[in-house]
DNA sequence: AATGAATGAGGTTTCATTCAT
DNA sequence: TATGAATGAAACCTCATTCAT
C-alpha cells in the first residue's frame, strides 16, 4: 500500500515516511547517551523520550547495548558520508585532507546528538559492544589513512602517528569546544595548517 | 628508567607510615574507575578492593563523587609534578616542550591507574564534580600555555589552538595506545616534531 | 452494629473485581504505618505484606510518601462519608453534632488500620506530604465547623475553639481508649454532653 | 572541690554549674526528637548538636531509647513542677483547675523543646520505652484527677472522661496552635469555661 | 570522657529485563 | 506493536552501635 520503507504501515498512514519507531528510539537513545553517558542513561529515560514504555522498547531493540551499537552505526554512517562528499571533488592532497577535516569537525561539533553520543561513549575493552564499535571506527578512520597516503611527506614521516595525532586532536575538541570562541571549520583549518606548513615547505 | 614516576610509592614522603586508609581507598577507587568507569563502578566494589565494608568507606569520604575528585587530585598532582620536574632544567623552548610532553605521555600511558581513571572519566557538565575537576585540569594545562608562550612562532600562530591540538592528541592516545607498537616517549617526540619542523625552519 | 463501616470491603462498589493491587498496597501500608509509624515502617515490609517485591511497589506508587498520602486519602474519605451519613437525617443541632461525633469515634476507634495509621502519623511540617495531608484534614474538619455554626451558642462562644477542643479531645482518645472500659459511642455522647450541659451547677 | 552537682569536675572548673554534658545531650536530643520525631532523629545528629561525636554519646547514655526516656523525665518533671506551683495557692476548685490548665498549656506551647519532643513522640505500645514513659505520664495526670475530684459535679459526671477530654483537648493543641492567633492562657481559660458553663442556653 | 574507624543490617529507590495480555 | 506489572539484583547511603586507643 504505502512505500516499502514505511515501517509503521499497520497504522493508518499519517504522514509520509515519518521517522519510524526505531529511528525515534535511536535518536532518543543518542540524546540520553550524549547527556548522561551510556551507563548512567536509563532504558526508561530513553523509552520515555521516544514516547513509549520501557517494555515497548524491547519490541525494537533486544538490549541497551544494541541501542548503543545502533547509535554508533548511524553516527559513523553520517560522518562517513559527510567526509566522502567532502573529498569527492578533485583537489590537491593537502586541500583534500583539509576538506575532510572540515567535514569531520562540522559533523562532530555541529550539535548532532549522534556524534556527541559517539564521542562521549568510547566503550571499554570489556564492553560487549567494544568489538562492533571499534570496527566501525576503524573503517571510518581508514578514510583518513587513504588521504594521508596521498600526502607528499618526507621519508621519516610516520603516517600512522600523523593520522592518530590529527584525529585525536580533533576528537578531543568536543571537550573544550565553545561555539562562542570557535568554529568547527576554523579548528580544522588551523590544525591542518599546523601540520602542513613545515612539511610542505 | 628513573624511579621518580613509581606511582605506587606513597608520594614525596610525607609520613613514613604504611599507606593510610584514605590512600588505599583512593587507589582502589582509581582502579575501579579506570576499569569500569565512574558510573558503573560501585562503592561496594571500591570498598571491597580496599579491604573494608562499603559503610566504612563513608568514614573517609562522604560520597562517591568525592572519591572521584580525590582521584583526580592525586592524578593531577602527580602529572603536574612529573612535568614540572621535566622542565626544571635549562633548555631551549622546543626542547622544553618536548620534555614536558614526554613526561606527560610517560605519566598518562605508564600504567598508573590514577591516570587511566582520569582519562576515562571526564565528568559531564551536569556532574557535581565537574567544576572542581575542570579547575584542576585548567591549572595543569596552564603549564603548557607557559611553554608555548616561549616558543618562537610566526605572528599568525594561534597558541591556544596549538596547545589544544597538542594536548588533545596526547589525551586521545589512551584510546589507541598499545605498548607493543608504541612507547610514550616516541609518541611525544613525534607529535612535537610534527608541529616543530615547519615552524622552526 | 451496622455494616456501613466494614472497612475491609472495597468501598462503595466501584468495580466488582478483587481488591486491586493498589488497594492491597494501601492496606498493607496502613497496617505498617499503624504498627510502626511512618518512618520506622519499611517499604520492604509493606511490599511483603502486600505479597510482592519492594521493587514492584514502585509500579503503583512512586514513593513511600505517596503511600502515606494514599492512606490518608482513604481514611479521610471513609470517615467523611461516615459522618456525612450520620448527619444526613433531620435532627436538632445538638443531636446532629452528637451523631457526627458518634460516627467520628466509631470510625476512629473501630479498629480500622487506616484510621490508626492516620492518627499515629500526623506529618511534621517539614514532611513533603505535610501540605497534602493538612488540606485533607482541614476539609474534613470543615464538616464540624458547619455543625457548630448551627448550634445556638451564647454570644461569647468561641466556635473555633469549641471545634478544636471537641475534635482534639476525640483525636487524643486513640491514646487511651480501651475497648474493655469504653465504647466509642459512649465517649462521643459524654464529650458532647460535657459541652452542652452546665457542669458548674 | 566544687559542688556535688558538678558532674564535669575532672576538668578544670570553667564556669559554675554550666550544663553538664548529659544535660546538653538531653537538650540536643529533645531538639532532634521535636524536629524529626524519635525514629527519624539520628544519634549522629543529636551528638553533633551537642558538640561531640556519635561514639562519645555512648559514654553518657547507653542507647537512643534511653535518651528518649531522659527527655521525657525532664519534660514531665518540668511540667509537673509548673502545675504544682500553679495550684499551690488556695483557690476555689474551678479556679484551681483553670490555673493548672493555664500552667499546663503555658508549658506545652511555650516553645520548650522538651515538651514538643514529649508530645510528638508518644511511644508505641511495642516500644521498649513504652512502659517507663506511660508511668511518668500517669503520675502527672494524677494531678488532674485530684483537681477534678474537688470539683462539685452533678451525680452523673464521669470524672474520668472529663479528665481525659480536657487533657486530650489540650494535648492535641500542639497540632493546631499558632502563636499568631492564640495564647496558651486563652486556650486554657476557654476550654475550662466550655466545661464549666452551660453552652446550651 | 572522647574519638576515629569500623561494621552488619537495612534504608529507599533504580536498574535492565521479562512476560502475559 | 505495545504495555502494565513484576522481579532480582544492585545502586548509594545511613543507621545504631562497638571497640581499641
> Which protein chains are joined by the largest interface, and how many residues does each one contribute?
C-D, 41 and 41 residues
Q: What distance separates the N and C termini of chain A? A: 62 Å
Task: Tell me, rounded to a whole number, the average pLDDT of chain A.
Answer: 88
Helix fraction of chain A, binned, reads 55-70%
Model regions low in confidence, pLDDT < 50 over at least 5 residues of chain A: 1-14
Q: Helices and strands of chain A: which structural class? A: mainly alpha
CATH topology of the domain at 72-200 in chain A: Tetracycline Repressor, domain 2
Classified in CATH, the superfamily of the domain at 72-200 in chain A is Tetracycline Repressor, domain 2
Q: Beta-strand percentage of chain A? A: under 5%
Q: How would you portray this structure in words?
A:
The structure is a homotetramer of 201-residue chains. Chain A has 201 residues and is mainly α. Chain A has a domain at 72-200: Orthogonal Bundle (Tetracycline Repressor, domain 2). Helix content of chain A is 63%, strand content 0%. Chain A has nine helices and no strands. In chain A, α4 packs parallel to α7 (130-149) and α7 packs across α8 (159-172). Chain A is elongated, with a radius of gyration of 19 Å. The termini of chain A are far apart. Mean pLDDT of chain A is 88; it is low at 1-14. Chains in contact: A-B, C-D. The interface between C and D is large, with 41 and 41 residues.
Amino acid at each position: 500500500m504505502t512505500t516499502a520503507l514505511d515501517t509503521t504501515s499497520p497504522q493508518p498512514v499519517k504522514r509520509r515516511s515519518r521517522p519510524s519507531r526505531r529511528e525515534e528510539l535511536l535518536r532518543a537513545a543518542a540524546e540520553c547517551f550524549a547527556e548522561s553517558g551510556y551507563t548512567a542513561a536509563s532504558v526508561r529515560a530513553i523509552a520515555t523520550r521516544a514516547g513509549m514504555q520501557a517494555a515497548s522498547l524491547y519490541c525494537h531493540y533486544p538490549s541497551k547495548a544494541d541501542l548503543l551499537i545502533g547509535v554508533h552505526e548511524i553516527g559513523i554512517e553520517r560522518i562517513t558520508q559527510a567526509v566522502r562528499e567532502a573529498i569527492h571533488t578533485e583537489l590537491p592532497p593537502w586541500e583534500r585532507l583539509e576538506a575532510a577535516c572540515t567535514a569531520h569537525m562540522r559533523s562532530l561539533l555541529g550539535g548532532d546528538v549522534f556524534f556527541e553520543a559517539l564521542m562521549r561513549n568510547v566503550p571499554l575493552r570489556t564492553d560487549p559492544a567494544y568489538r562492533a564499535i571499534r570496527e566501525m571506527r576503524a573503517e571510518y578512520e581508514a578514510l583518513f589513512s587513504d588521504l594521508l597516503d596521498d600526502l607528499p611527506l618526507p621519508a621519516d614521516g610516520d603516517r600512522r602517528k600523523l593520522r592518530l595525532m590529527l584525529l585525536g586532536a580533533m576528537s578531543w575538541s568536543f571537550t573544550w569546544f565553545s561555539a562562542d570562541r570557535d568554529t568547527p571549520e576554523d579548528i580544522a583549518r588551523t590544525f591542518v595548517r599546523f601540520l602542513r606548513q613545515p612539511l610542505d615547505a
